[in-house]
Amino acid sequence: xxxxxxxxxxxxxxxxxxxxxxxxxxxxxxxxxxxxxxxxxxxxxxxxxxxxxxxxxxxxxxxxxxxxxxxxxxxxxxxxxxxxxxxxxxxxxxxxxxxxxxxxxxxxxxxxxxxxxxxxxxxxxxxxxxxxxxxxxxxxxxxxxx
Length: 146
Hints:
Blueprint: H1 6-21, H2 24-37, H3 44-61, H4 73-79, H5 83-94, H6 99-105, H7 110-133
Helix pairs in contact: 1-2, 1-3, 2-3, 5-7, 6-7
């Protein structure tokens, strides 16, 4: 099994931060926060610190979304989820963090977290279909921010 390189780990953290925040600037700052918090980017805490920072920083930018063009089309719909569902979906499904860590990070009970992941999985196809049918074409509407 190939060991992840530092650049791979930084990229994984960046993409997860971008998916949570929708902003390149927020994702970059979050990665820097993660690096500041963990001396070793291969430590599992690095990704957690990075995503946690992206969630905190997302509030500061209040809906500024500038990174959607960087995402694969199928991932753009994930960013259109309401933040609690988006956070749960990104952390559990895309980042692969365990439910206990995700729930703690998001300050939810495990049951609330699991319900949110299920809601996100149900909402994604409906959201994608609705946005594909809209007159705005492939562009997303103003995205919700917590």
